[in-house]
Amino acid sequence: MxxxxxxxxxxxxxPYWHELYGSGVRAAACIGALTKDVxxxxxxxxxxxxxxxxxxxxxxxxxxSTHINHRTSFHYTHGLCTPLITPHPLQIERPASLLVNxxxxxxxxGFIEGDAIVHSDxxxxxxxxxxxPRPFWENGSTAKRLAIVANRAEAKALTGCDNEDExxxxxxxxxxxxxxxxxxxxxxxxxxxxxxxxxxxAYETDFVxxxxxxxxxxxxxxxxxxxxxxxxxxxADKASKAAAYYCNSGALPIxxxxxxxxxxxxxxxxxxxxxKTIYLAGPFFxxxxxxxxxxxxxxxxxPGISVFxxxxxxxxxxxxxxxxxxxxxxxxxxxxxxxxxxxDSGTLxxxx
Amino acid sequence: xxxxGGSSSTGTGGIPGHSEIDCAMIAEKTILxxxxxxxxxxxxxxxxLIVTLKVRNGQNILVAETQDGRTAGSLTLPLLPRILECMxxxxxxxxxxxxxxxxxxxxxxxxxxxxx
Lengths: 352, 116
What we know:
Helix content of chain B: 10-25%
Order of helices and strands of chain B: EHEEEHEE
Structural class of chain A: alpha/beta
Number of helices of chain B: 2
CATH topology of the largest domain in chain A: UDP-N-acetylmuramoyl-L-alanine:D-glutamate ligase
CATH topology of chain B: Alpha-Beta Plaits
Largest sheet of chain A: 10 strands, mixed
Number of domains of chain A: 2
Largest sheet of chain B: 6 strands, antiparallel
Structural class of chain B: mainly beta
Distance between the termini of chain A: 56 Å
Order of helices and strands of chain A: EEEHEHEEEEEEEHHEEEHHHEHEHHEH
Oligomer: heterodimer
Strand order of the largest sheet of chain B: 1-6-5-2-3-4
Shape of chain A: globular
CATH class of the largest domain in chain A: Alpha Beta
Radius of gyration of chain A: 22 Å
């Protein structure tokens, strides 16, 4: 398997993480236990070459790197946040595109700093950009059979459609597209071919380390669909299990026995709280408290959960002004999610 | 450093030039890769693993071993090349277990002792 993907420094404040991965390196590292002859084609900052070589030796993959002068870093305050990318993507000096011409199986990720023009028989394309994902063929790439793996935001940006059925239909009209997968986070993924559409589940793990889970999904889908010739829905389900395994541990590679030891249940309707409202309790006197409330609101709503946030829906006021609307919101909610920070009496009252 | 939960050698920024980092001052938090589940189930917070050099396909790699010689997992942190250089200068390192959450084992790598 050939992987064209990025090599980036990833830093997360909470939980702590400081590793040289990026989509390309993680993909090459995660699949090493299942298949040999994995080759990564990437750009690499000259300061990172020795680290990249050591990582490749540890995980047993080959690297072909084009050297660049800058390092691209992704800084996460927490695992669910939108990362701060440095240098800013618009300020990165873009090197020449990587050229990959192979008869091998190929996984192509989008790059921040450059691009990969690929020509291959079986290609999986993961655009890896929520803001400006590019169509596979735009840079002249070709594939005899192509699978597109995108999250919902990327599929929307690629197609201009709001409806998932329309996204799938639009992406399936692309040249030689055999499979389209739209990842929906905890709701699983939609897997579509010209003749079939199914939903495969995400799996409920004990812990969730989300950074890079999509990389693992795309890599394992490539392995099962392109290398093992497994049907798309089945390959995607195995990829979802591999991603769950990674989310639970954050460790690489995914071991060979991951499927036989896998015991996580599919994320169910009850888990998703799809018919319940969460009351977001917590103090919002300081900027830091308001930041935490806002982050909680955004990331609870992202998977589609209904949230009542007193700060956002009632606002700041006197006790007489906010008491009644806050209590109405509390009584309409089924679950309280409390940001405990000190002994704020309002929060303690709300959680009972 | 107030609020610092991570590395004293890299702070919150990128990877400094390797030669700038004092071998005796390395204190780097990282995840244990390729964790052996049988070894992991015996590990507890504050256990001390020995950072050991191995050769795989002609290349040096780092692993963390228990005191009785079982390999707990491999180490691939960005500072790995500098740690290898320091080990070449007779520095020895340990990996202290700071967290075990499911299959996720976090260790902090620090010098065992200054070379005499």
